[in-house]
Specification:
- This protein has about 900 residues and is mainly β.
- Among the domains are: about 45 residues; about 90 residues; about 80 residues; about 80 residues; about 110 residues, no CATH class; about 80 residues, Elongation Factor Tu (Ef-tu), domain 3 (Beta Barrel), CATH 2.40.30; about 70 residues.
- The chain contains 8 helices and 52 strands.
- The strands form 11 sheets. Strands 12, 13, 20, 21, 22, 23, 24, 25, 26 and 27 form a 10-stranded antiparallel beta sheet that branches.
- The chain is elongated.
- The protein starts with 17 loop residues before the first helix and ends with a strand.
- About 30% of the residues are buried.
- The C terminus is likely disordered.
């Protein structure tokens, strides 16, 4: 289109017909003058096309634009009207969106605002998104990092997946590449290589993840949905959830009654494997003593007078000369037919070496002829006992109902030098007199050798013919019976009940010789049973010495150097953990907690009643007492052999015993260990060397001193409660004591009135008391589901599943490691779950059609304008004032939110 001329007044005359030039000159002049006025700005009509652009229009037209397009906006705005008109269409097109409100406030008020839609935080059922990571635990390979963003394939399974990320982790001392995957097709297999291009060189292989747990012990009192953390020898971070439970009997509940003292976090827990109910018991079955049920298994092929033997039949044993040589009673009978079979006999007394037949003591016509006989005696260790039952562990053999049991301690017979086919053991200096019927055994492994048939001399004994004897300069021991009882019933079906030490209280660090002389060397020979030259050590040179430091030069080294010293943190047991209630128990087991490092030391809690000279005794102070130690000096008129320091001695006539403290050619100083006294004109015998001598004089030896000490626990009047920590010396009545604080400064002093023991009277390290009770239990777990495979678990390893809440009872099982693992699931956001930022629908503020403007201005300043321009019908407008401060002042006002300007 041709542009309109800006000035047209000069053209007016030429536009009129010629007759106007003659007849109407005044009219032409008028029209020309009019257009001259227009050219001079008298009218904007000629610029109407130009003025339709908001950028070029004149100010007089702006009101028309505003009235047309910005009718509801205030007269004064932060933005230029021309700018507003140009961009108002963007505002109208985004009407109802958060961006429209932000643009509106920017244009009108030059303010940045926030728009909050409460509807997005309204709680909606099943609206959350749950994410479960999948990953492959693989061998360490730098190539694994090149898989990120690519598809990988299992070389054997042909399973495929997309790799999201790769993380290298160190688990259980080994590095694993954790490959996080998605879009999984198929299942990867343990041991297969994975690749992204079918080239296996340098590819990692799948070591496998924990996929399930086979429950072996389901604990008790659990519920479906309970969460458990998984621990194992190598893996970590696994989690399971309980899916199935059952009710059952035979579960053991452990209750800590007395925490004792002297225990470490790894102290040994012993739970009896069998409980033997007893009658007619004599003596005492003491903890850690050995026990034996003497049994003979007799096989016969000719039975007359009956079809079989019955349990509890009294049995007499005869030799070929028809002389009775032993007796017992039947505890088990297994006939093969009416004339042949096997019976197990409780061996009461006698010598079975020449057995030919057995007869029913009540009816001698019932006779069975000998085919074979074996010693099937059962050995065990005592955990604990009471008047009606004995708890046993480390049981070797099968215990029988009705067969008597006896407890014993061992004493050495001497060093076995040789044996012959006639069952004669020749030893040197049999210190303790053996008795017929004694059980002889190797102390190194508690292996029984046989039963003493006769004592030939002080250096020779004879065993029954069915004994086992293979000697090579080994010390042999015999049993000294401490208790005997008839067995009524043996309960031994339960398995698995145990626990471990939980938290410790009142702890202290002590230094102990961390070497067990009663332990075994690499050749499985007890250190205490070795010859000095190591000839029976069953190992190479220098491998037979003390267990602590095998590198010491044994030819000229010191014993102290051979015994390594280690620090131990000991204390009172305050709780139990990792409790396994076991399965199928039908009698309450006996329980003992033992700390091998501290149990040899003497320790008891005690009350000390003082006569004070001041009042400075306080809890936490150390109480000290210097006490004399009495010893006895023995002058010998004659001396055979050589007594050695540290060996035990005995006077056979009086029974007096002691430990040799020092010795010379004719003088032996001993520390008495019994209340009896040595007398003159009687011999003493060295227990390990065989030395002996006639005593001519008994006098008090020079007195030495030791220092008893203990930690003051409580002070009440003149009574102090202390924890004895001296391990060797004891507080005594009437002795003077002092106390020092942690800096060693003297605080209190006084004289002991009396010393009274309190609490459990056993030694430190074995004086805790745990009660075990068999109960019917509910909530025994039978099935769990993996929630988190964790990392580093191995196939078939033993796992402990510990509750993530306060339960101390654990579940136990074995690991199944097969394919890719599952990570701990998580919600992508908080939608669909009750949370601090999710609210219940209220049809007002928290609903789909409400919105809130967060601005520095109050709502009444902009609500009408906003409603006229952008507000959508059916929605609800709310406003919140945001107060800003440069000083960081916190304002607490309803409806106000504070934002600090950095």
């Amino acid at each position: 289109m041709k542009e309109i001329e800006q000035n047209i007044s000069p053209l007016i005359e030429s536009q009129f017909p010629s007759f106007y030039q003659v007849e109407g000159q005044n009219f032409v002049a008028f029209v020309k003058a009019y257009y001259e006025w227009l050219d001079q700005g008298g009218s904007e009509s000629r610029n109407i096309l130009k003025y339709r652009s908001i950028d070029d229009t004149v100010d007089e037209f702006l009101d028309n634009f505003k009235n047309e397009f910005l009718n509801s906006l205030p007269e004064n705005t932060a933005s230029d009207k021309r700018f507003l008109v140009k961009h108002i269409q963007d505002l109208y097109k985004s009407k109802g969106s958060s961006e429209a409100y932000k643009l509106f406030f920017d244009l009108v008020f030059s303010e940045d605002i926030e728009v909050y839609n409460p509807g997005q935080d309204v709680l909606r059922a099943s609206h959350g998104v749950w994410i479960i990571p999948n990953y492959l635990e693989c061998s360490k390979s730098d190539r694994a990092f090149s898989f990120i963003g690519k598809q990988i394939t299992g070389a054997s399974s042909e399973a495929t997946a997309f790799v999201e990320n790769v993380v290298r982790r160190k688990v259980g001392g080994r590095f694993l590449d954790i490959i996080y995957i998605s879009n999984i097709m198929g299942n990867f297999q343990t041991g297969e290589y994975i690749t992204d291009n079918n080239i296996l060189s340098g590819s990692p292989y799948v070591v496998g993840s924990l996929n399930s747990v086979n429950v072996t012990s389901g604990g008790a009192n659990n519920k479906i949905g309970d969460l458990f953390n998984i621990t194992g020898p190598g893996g970590k971070s696994g989690k399971v959830v309980v899916r199935k439970t059952v009710d059952g009997t035979g579960k053991v509940t452990f209750t800590l009654v007395d925490g004792g003292y002297g225990f470490e976090s790894n102290s040994q827990v012993i739970v009896s494997n069998a409980v033997v109910f007893i009658t007619s018991n004599t003596g005492s079955f003491n903890t850690f003593e050995s026990a034996i049920q003497p049994l003979k298994t007799f096989q016969y092929n000719t039975l007359t007078g009956a079809n079989s033997f019955a349990v509890l039949d009294s049995i007499n044993v005869y030799n070929s000369a028809n002389s009775q040589i032993a007796n017992g009673y039947v505890v088990a009978s297994t006939p093969s037919n009416t004339t042949a079979g096997t019976v197990v006999i409780s061996d009461v007394a006698g010598n079975w070496a020449t057995v030919s037949k057995i007869r029913n003591a009540a009816n001698l016509t019932i006779t069975a002829s000998y085919v074979d006989i074996t010693d099937s005696s059962v050995t065990a260790k005592v955990v604990g006992s009471n008047n009606v039952a004995v708890g046993l562990y480390d049981i070797q053999g099968t215990l029988y109902n009705s067969g008597y049991i006896k407890a014993f301690v061992g004493e050495p017979l001497g060093l076995a030098k040789s044996n012959t086919t006639t069952n004669i053991i020749t030893g040197n200096n049999t210190i303790w007199q053996a008795n017929v019927g004694d059980t002889v055994y190797f102390r190194a492994n508690n292996a029984p050798i046989g039963i003493v048939y006769s004592v030939l001399s002080n250096t020779s004994i004879q065993l029954v013919s069915n004994s086992l004897y293979t000697f090579n300069n080994a010390t042999i021991w015999r049993t000294i019976e401490t208790a005997r009882a008839n067995t009524e019933t043996v309960y031994s079906s339960g398995t698995g009940a145990t626990f471990s030490v939980g938290s410790l209280g009142d702890t202290q660090t002590i230094a102990v010789k961390d070497a067990r002389l009663a332990g075994f060397n690499s050749g499985n020979v007890c250190f205490l049973d070795m010859l000095i030259d190591g000839s029976n050590a069953n190992t190479a040179a220098n491998a037979y010495g003390f267990s602590g430091n095998s590198a010491i030069g044994y030819s000229n080294g010191l014993i102290n150097d051979a015994l390594l010293q280690a620090n131990a943190i000991i204390g009172r047991i305050d709780s139990l953990q990792s409790v396994n209630p076991g399965n199928n128990y039908n009698a309450d087991p006996f329980v003992k907690i033992v700390d091998a490092k501290t149990s040899p030391f003497y320790f008891k809690d005690k009350d000390v009643i003082l006569t004070e000279t001041n009042n400075q005794f306080s809890p936490g102070q150390k109480l000290l007492q210097t006490i004399p130690i009495s010893r006895t000096e023995l002058i010998l008129a004659s001396n055979t052999g050589s007594f050695k320091i540290g060996e035990g001695v005995q006077q056979l006539i009086t029974g007096a015993r002691g430990i040799v403290v020092s010795t010379s050619v004719s003088t032996v100083i001993v520390q008495p260990i019994t209340n009896t006294s040595f007398v003159v004109s009687n011999n003493i015998i060295g227990q390990t060397t065989g030395a002996n001598g006639a005593i001519s004089t008994v006098t008090a030896a020079p007195t030495t001193f030791g220092q008893a000490n203990g930690l003051i626990q409580a002070v009440s009047g003149n009574t102090l409660t202390i924890r004895d920590t001296s391990f060797e010396f004891q507080f005594s009545d009437g002795a003077s004591v002092t106390s020092i604080d942690t800096t060693g400064t003297l605080q209190g002093s006084g004289t002991i009135g009396t010393v009274n023991y309190i609490g459990n009277p056993e030694y430190m390290g074995i004086n805790a008391q745990v009660d075990a009770e068999v109960k019917t239990a509910s909530g025994i777990v039978t099935e769990v589901e993996i929630l988190d495979s964790g990392f580093g678990y191995s196939a078939n390893e033993q796992l402990e599943l510990a509750s993530s809440n306060t339960q101390i009872t654990s579940i136990f099982g074995t690991a199944n490691v097969l394919r890719q693992g599952l990570g701990a699931g998580y919600w992508k956001d908080n939608k669909g779950k009750l949370n601090s930022d999710k609210y219940i629908h209220d049809n007002k503020y928290y609903q789909e059609y409400s919105y809130e403007i967060k601005s520095k201005m109050s709502l009444n300043r902009y609500s009408d304008i906003l409603k006229n321009i952008l507000h959508i019908a059916g929605t609800e407008l709310f406003g919140r004032v945001i107060v800003q401060t440069e000083q960081g002042i916190k304002l607490d006002a309803p409806g106000a939110e504070i934002t600090e300007i950095p």
